[in-house]
Amino acid sequence: GVQACALPIYERTARGKTSDYSGYRSNRKDWYEKTLAAHGYRAFVFQADAKQFDYSNVGPVALAILDVDLYGPVAGALPKIYHQLVPGGMILVHDCETCPQGSIFDGGCEAYKEFCRDEGIESKVFQGFGVVKKMR
Length: 136
Fold this sequence. Notes:
Blueprint: E1 2-3, H1 9-13, H2 29-38, E2 46-47, E3 61-66, H3 71-84, E4 85-93, H4 107-119, E5 124-126, E6 129-133
Parallel strand pairs: 1-2, 3-4
Antiparallel strand pairs: 4-6, 5-6
Helix pairs in contact: 3-4
């Protein structure tokens, strides 16, 4: 997983959100790794700005879960991860069903819908996740 690090200034200035998003300050790589391990998952975790991260260093990607909730990081990360996605691989974008339009956390879903539209990919939501599948 890649964590968002910078405070979401874009959400406030360009999207008109009023939150200071201070809850993101508590995100820590070690906490994330321990949470994954406690649920039986092994993953390589990188702490970085999701839209600035060089995904080519990771190699081919079969499954990516974007749980960032913010427009800028999701809009920046989706095309980069999609480029690394293996045929048949998937990207899941969190909160594409449960986060209503106008919520302070609707940016990720908006970026997902724009990405699908721009790439000609059918927008599908499953179990609250926006699904991007790379065809074979």
